[in-house]
Structure formats: structure tokens, C-alpha cells
Amino acid sequence: MTTTGLDLGSLVRGERVHRRVYADPAVFDLEMARIFSRAWIYVGHESQVRRAGDYYATRIGREPVVLVRSEDGRVRVLRNRCAHRGALVVADERGHAADFRCAYHGWTYRTDGSLLAVPLPQGYAAAPTADPALGLQAVARSASYRGFVFASLAADGPDLATFLGRVASSLDDMVERAPDDALEVAGGVFKHAYDGNWKLYLENLNDGVHPNAVHQSSVEAARAQDDTVVTDGAGEIAVRQMRQNGAAYGFWEKEVGLFTFPFGHSYLSDYHTDEKLVAAKRDPVFADYIAALERAKGRERARAILSVGRWNTNLYPNCSFMSQFRQLRIVHPIAVDRTEVHTFNFRMRGAPARMFHDTIRFANVVNGTGSPVLTDDLETYGRIQAGLQAQGPEWINTARQFARERPDQGGGHVSDGTSEAHIRNMFAAWVQYMTA
Ligand code: FES
Ligand SMILES: [Fe+2]
Question: Over the stretch 84-138, which tens digit does the pLDDT of each residue have?
Fold first, then answer.
């Protein structure tokens, strides 16, 4: 299909991609219209809108929306635009309100989006409040999976269960690690931005070859760290994480699996050699957590839950989470060369309170703006974008382990942890959305 002179399908070949896909503002506009307006987009978690009137304002692609729990208890995703003259109605990122009042002329909306009142109603031939079109419109579709709320701006398309497919098991993993089978967003939000295309972020997260090069400085610093200075189990996770980024290539090839699924999703299996259950012997907090999990679910089930070892799961196009570490990141494309990422941390209901401290400590190492690891990646995204915006060669190479994906019993395909299969898989979805 050709649009604005672009043959979109031809920009993606088996093992190469045209640089315009990352650098052309016209492609970016089409991505917002065809991917972010069609796919299921992760919006937020039900725990962020626990009580009626709680809201959280965010975006689907470039469209401002509000996640809100209405008086009837339902969680809704509403477009954040006044039906009068179009102003954003909800300006705060989160809060609690009995109703939403537009700051411009004071049109007021109920938490289900319906119009409650307007000033000077006598000035209209028919009362605006009687017209259902004059409300904060719900997006075309929204649905939850185990507390995770997704929305689609398209009325048609696969349902959420079909979209998630087998990769829903990573969300199961995240929820089932909680003794009470429930998670809640806690603490603040880490936000970072980079001068690069949104696709670079998901590509990097499951790229098993980059850590050895990109993160070399923190690998070396962590290796130089004396184990004996670690006292409370918290520093340990940081040092362990940073050291393991330097695992030999052979380890990534043989011990780490990269799993890809329809719709562009993927996950990387955990790449840490030491077992949490072994660590528990040294870490009293983790031991308490295991005990709570065993009390709630039985010893066998607890062991099965803890034996699931996944690193990043990417839900294409806008979400990546670490089920084991209770972190979730939302990718917000801003422009072809600008992206924001928001990271949320989850508390497990029924787990010792200290487990959440470890979540935050881990976040500070991996997702925080002061992270010695994340900052390397941000620098890299900027360098990639600068290179791709230069005229130079037209194609980039995504050929590592090309055509070596094997069908996996989990319903997707499996490659070794050095493969670029997840990138090719995302581009297969990209072509589908963009040319449908
Ligand atoms: S634009 Fe919202 S009340 Fe006028
Ligand atoms: Fe990285």
C-alpha cells in the first residue's frame, strides 16, 4: 500500500529495515494512526483507580485519555477532551474527583463521562445535557486482564485475550507471585525521555548482545565490588544484576531463551544463574515472602510459581514489564525522534512489606533515572537516532540468528538469547498494522 509516496511494506525486508522507519516523521504519523489507534494499548492498572472518582490521566499514542473509576464501580477509559470547545478537561496526572469540571467555561462531567451541567443552558435550542454525544467519550474498546487495563481506539479487531495470546502467562506470573493474587501500583512514577524513536526501546530490552558492550562500565564496577559490603540483600540485587550483564556470549546463546509471539510480543528468559531460592537462605525478607506464598498456595504451587524465570516481557507496541521484579514500563511516543517512558512499581498483596523496598531498590538499578545501567541505554538510543537520521546507507541489519526461530511448545517461537528474532517479530506486526 502506498501512502504519501511511501511503499510501507517495502521498508521491511526479512533481515533488514529501511532507516526511514525510524527517522521519517511521515512514517511516525502513520504509526500513530495505524498502530497506536488499532492495537490494544496498555493504559494503567485498576489499583490506580481504586475508589469511585479516582482517575489517572495518560495517553494512547498522542491521544489524551483518562482512566477513571465511575460511580457505578466500572473502570472506564475516556477521551480527555471537552465536548464544548475541546480543552483538556483533566489536567492533573492523577487524583480524585466527584466530577470533572472543564477549566475554560465550566462544563461539568460525571465520572462516567456524561455531561452533568453547563452554564447558561437557556442559551441552547436543546439542553446540551440531554445530548449523549456531548460528553467525555469512551474510547472504542477497553478491557482488563487480571487488573491490567488495556484500550483500543478501534471498534474492530481481535479481542484482548486473542491479542495477548500465550504471552498473558507473563501477566499471570506477575500476579500469581503475590500471595493474595493481587497487585497494586505503589510509590511514584519514574519518568525518563530520550532523543530517539519509540521502537528502539522495546528492541533494546530483549537484546541479549548489547549488555556486554553498552553496560561495560557498570559490569566492571560491580565485579570490583566486594561482596562483604552487602548487608541487607538490597545491594546484592544491584550488584548481581550489573555483574550478570557481563555474562559471556556463550551463556546468552545456551542458557537464555528469546520467545516471540503473534502481534509483536516477546519475552526473554531470566539470565541470572543464581536461584532466588538459594538467595533466600541469605535473605530473611525473601524467606518470609516464600513462607507467605506457601501459606497461601501450598508448598508445591509456591515452588512452581517461583520457578518461572522471565526477564522482560514486551507487549507490542507500548508496554514492557518484569513479572519477577514487579516493574512495568509504558512507552509514550512523542515524535519520530523523541520518546518518554514511565515506570510503575507494584506491591504484592500478602507479601512482607519489605519486599516492596527491594522492588524499589531494583528499580533504582534498572529503571530509575539515576541508574548506572539505564543511562547507558539512553545514550545509545540518541546515538542510534543520530546515525539513522544521517543520509548514509539506507538499510539497517537485523539478521542475527535469522530464520533459526523454532516453534515452541508455548505456542510461539523460541530463539537463543542472542537472536534479533524479537525485532523481526515486531516488524512483522508493524507491517500488518501499517498495511492493513
Ligand atoms: S472548552 Fe470546556 S467548557 Fe468550554
Ligand atoms: Fe541495556
Answer: 999 999 999 999 999 999 999 999 999 999 999 999 999 999 999 999 999 999 9
**Amino acid (one-letter) located at 344:** F
Q: What are phi and psi of 302, to 5 degrees?
A: -60, -45
Give the residue among 393, 366, 378 at the shortest CA–CA distance from 340: 378
Q: C-alpha grid cell for residue 367?
A: 529503571
Binding site membership of 268 for ligand 1 (Cβ less than 6 Å): no
Does this model's pTM top 0.90? Answer: yes
**Are 262 and 302 in a shared domain?**
yes
- Domain final residue, candidates 117, 152, 187: 152
Any idea what the Cα angle at residue 57 is, between residues 325 and 337, rounded to 5°? 75
Higher pLDDT, 177 or 275: 177
Cα-to-centroid distance, 106 and ligand 1 (Å): 6
CA distance 296 to 353: 16
> Which residue's CA is the nearest one to ligand 1's atom 3?
105
Count of structural domains, the chain: 2
Domain around 383: 165-435
Q: What is the CATH number of the domain that holds 97?
A: 2.102.10.10
223-252 confidence digits (pLDDT tens): 888 766 555 555 567 777 788 889 899 999
Give 104 Cα–ligand 1 centroid separation in angstroms.
Answer: 5
Cα 54 to averaged position of ligand 1 atoms, centre (Å)? 22
- Taking the CA of 374 as reference, the closest ligand is 2
Does residue 25 lie in a domain region?
no
Relative to beta strand 41-45, strand 54-60 is unpaired
Are 192 and 340 contacting, i.e. CB atoms less than 8 angstroms apart?
A: yes
**Position 337 in a domain:** yes
Nearest residue to 323 via CA among 109, 187, 178: 178
In short, whether 87's Cβ falls inside 6 Å of ligand 1 is yes
Three-class DSSP category at 350: coil
Identity of residue 128 = P
Cα Rg, the chain, nearest whole Å: 23
91 lines ligand 1 (CB under 6 A): no
Taking Cα atoms as reference points, which of 183, 105, 153, 195 lies closest to residue 346? 183
Nearest to 24 by CA among 2, 13, 44, 8: 8
